[in-house]
Amino acid sequence: MTIRRRLFISFFIFVLFILFIGLGTFFVVTQSNYFLKLALENYTMLVNTQNLYSALENQRRAFYSYLILGEETDKMEYESLSELIDKDIVAYPDEEARRVCSEMRSYQKRMIALHEKITRGDFYSFLDKQFNPISTKLKNILMKNAEHYKYRIEDIKIRMRKLCNISYLLGVLTFLLALFLSLLLTVMLFRYIAFPLFELFKGVNIISGGNLNYEIPLSKSSSDEIYELTKAFNNMVKEIRNLQVQVLQMDRMSSLGQLAGGVAHELNNPLTGVIGQTQLLLEKFPPDSPIYQTLKKIEHAGQRCRRIVRALLDFARQKDYVFAKQNIHQLIDEVLELSSSDLRAAKVEVIKEYDKDLPLVNVSSSHIQQVILNIVTNALQSMAPKNGGILRIITRHRPEIKKIEIEFIDTGMGIKKEHLPHVFDPFFTTKEVGKGTGLGLTVSYGIIQKHNGEILAYSDGEGKGAKFVIRLPTENGGNS
Amino acid sequence: MEEIVKKTKLVVLIEDDPDVFGVVLGIFGVKFGDVKVVHIDNGSEVFEHVSSLLQNGASPDLIILDLMLPGANGFEICSKLREKFFVDKRKVPILAITGYDSVENKRKILQAGATDYLPKPFDIEVFVKKIKKYLFPEVKQI
User: Fold this and answer.
1) Residue of B13, B67, B124, B125 to mutate, testing the A interface (most A Cβ within 10 Å of its Cβ)
2) What is the mean pLDDT of residues A109-135?
C-alpha cells in the first residue's frame, strides 16, 4: 500500500472519529437541555399547585371563621386570599380544577350573601351537603396534581442520570479511541516512514562513503513510495558502479592501447630480422634436414609474433573503417554462416531472438563482424569442455538510450569473478598457450569504442555461462 | 657505410635498424648478387651521400627508404629526394618500408612521392617480388 493511500485512510478515520465525538456531544447537550427545561416546568407547576393548595386551606379557614364568628378581620383575610386564588386559578392548566374551583367559589359567594338571613342549622346542612364535598374534591385534585408533578420530576432525574452515564461512557470511549488511533499512527509512522528512511539514510551514508557495492535492504512486505525510492536509488548506484567500471576500463584500455601500440612498433624491426633471416637460412637447407625443421619452427614462432603485433596495432590504431548503414541481423547471420561448420562440430545450438523492429545502424561492417566472430568463437571454445551447449543471440532496440543492443548468452564455462574485470585487457587469456592471442576481446573493445558503443561482459561465475552485450548508437554511430 | 656487390644496378638503402638492413642486405647478397647496394644508416646524411653518388655519375635504380630514421623524417626525405634529385617516378622508384603500418602513412608517403609501400615485417618472397618488379621490369613476373 502506498504512503499516499495510507495518509488518505488515516485522514478518513480521523474525520470519522471527530464526527463521532461531535455527534455524541450534540446528543448529550440537546438531551440535557430538554430535560432541564422539562424539570423546570414541572417544578414550577408543583410550586404553583402547592401555593394554590395552601392558599385554599387558609382561605377556607378564614371563610369558616367569618361565617361562624362574623369577625371583620376574617372577612378581610378571606377576601384578599380569594382575590389571589381567583387570579391564580385562571392560569392553572388543569381544566377540572378550574371548573371545581369556580363552582366552590360560587357556593362561597352565595353563603357570604346569605349568612345573616338563614338559620344556623340550615347553614351547617348547606356546608355539609354542598360546600364541603366540592372543597374536598378541589383539594384532592390539587393533591393529585402535586403528586403527578413530583412523579414527573423524579422520572426526569432518573433519565438525566442515565444521560450522565452515557456521557461518561462517551468520554471514556473517546479517550480510548484517541489513544488507540494515536498509537496506530505512531506505529505506522515509525514502521512505514521513519525506519525505512533511516535505512535509506544509513545506506546513502555508506554509499557516499565510497562503498558502491552496498545494496540498501528493501522491506519485503511493503511496496510504497519509500520502497520504490530505495529501489530506484539501488538501481542508480548500480548504474554508477557500471559506469565507474566502464570509465576505469576505458581509461586503462586507452593507456594500454598506447603502450601496446608503441611496443608493437618497436617489435616490427627485430621481427623483420627474425623472419627474414630465418627465411634466408631456410633456402640453404633441404626440407628434410633437421635444421630446416628447426628453422621452420623459428619462422612459425616469428609469424605468430607478427600476428600478435598486427592485432595489437589494430587495437591501438583502429584500421580502415568504412561506416555505412547496416542491418545488424544480416551481419550476425553472415558470421554464423561462416562459423556454421565449427558450430556443428562443437554441438552448439544457436537460438536467435531478433527484434524485428531493429533500426539500421551506422557501422563498419567488417569490424563489427570481427567483433561478432570473436565473441562467437569464444563462446564455442568455452562450451567445448561441456561437449556443446546453447548460444542465444538476442537483439533489441532501446530508444530510451538511443542504442541497439546485441546479447550473446552462452552456456559455457563462464568467467571467474576475479577475471571479469580483465577480459578486455590485452594478452589476458585463459586459453591454452597458442590457442589464443589474448587480443580478440581487446581488439573487439577497440572496435566498439570506435563506434561510440559499449561492450560489456557478465558471468555468474565459473561454469555458469557468460553474457556479452554490445550496444551501438542509432545516431552518430561512427566517429568517421 | 657502403657495400658494393656488383656493378650493374644500383640500389640505395636508407635504413638505420641493423635487424632490418641485415635482412635486406642478406636478400640482396643471396638473390641479387650483381646489384650494387649503397647503405645509408643515418637520415641526416642522405642528401650528402646521394649528391656524391650523382657527382660520380652513378644514378640509383631503386631507393629503399625507411620511414622512421634517427635525425630525419622519412616523409620529408622522400619529398626532398623527389624535388631535388629524382623528379621522374618511373626512372627512380622509391620503395617505402615501415613498421608503422597504417592507411594514413601509406597515403602520406605515396603523396610524398614514394612509388610503393611495404609494411614490416615482410616475407622475403614478397620483398623479392617487389625488388624484381622495380629493378627488372622487363623480366616478366611469375
Assistant:
1) B124
2) 84
Among chain A residues, the shortest Cα distance to B15 is held by A269
Q: Which residues from chain B sit within 8 angstroms of residue A367, using beta carbons?
A: none
Tell me the domain boundaries of chain A: 3-184, 244-317, 321-480
Shortest Cα distance, chain B CAs vs residue A385, angstroms = 37
In this prediction, residues A281-291 reach a mean pLDDT of 92
What is the arithmetic mean of pLDDT over A247-265? Answer: 73
Architecture of domain A244-317: Orthogonal Bundle (1.10)
Q: Output the pLDDT for position A160.
A: 92
Which of chain A's residues have a Cβ under 8 Å away from the Cβ of B30?
280, 283
The C-alpha atoms of residue B26 and residue A280 are separated, in whole angstroms, by: 8
B19 touches chain A (CB under 8 A): yes
A302 at interface of B, judged by CB pairs closer than 8 A: yes
Instruction: Residue B102: list chain A partners with CB under 8 A.
Output: 317, 319
Q: Report CB contact under 8 Å: B26, A277.
A: yes
Q: Is B16 in CB contact (< 8 Å) with chain A?
A: no
A306 neighbourhood in chain B, CB within 8 Å: 121
Whether the CB of A269 is below 8 Å from some CB of chain B: the reply is yes
- The domain defined by B9-131 folds into Rossmann fold (3.40.50)
Whether the pTM exceeds 0.80: the reply is: no
Q: What is the CATH number of domain A321-480?
A: 3.30.565.10
Is the minimum CB–CB distance between B17 and chain A shorter than 8 Å? Answer: yes
ipTM value: 0.86
> Which residues 77-116 of B have a C-beta within 8 angstroms of A?
99-103
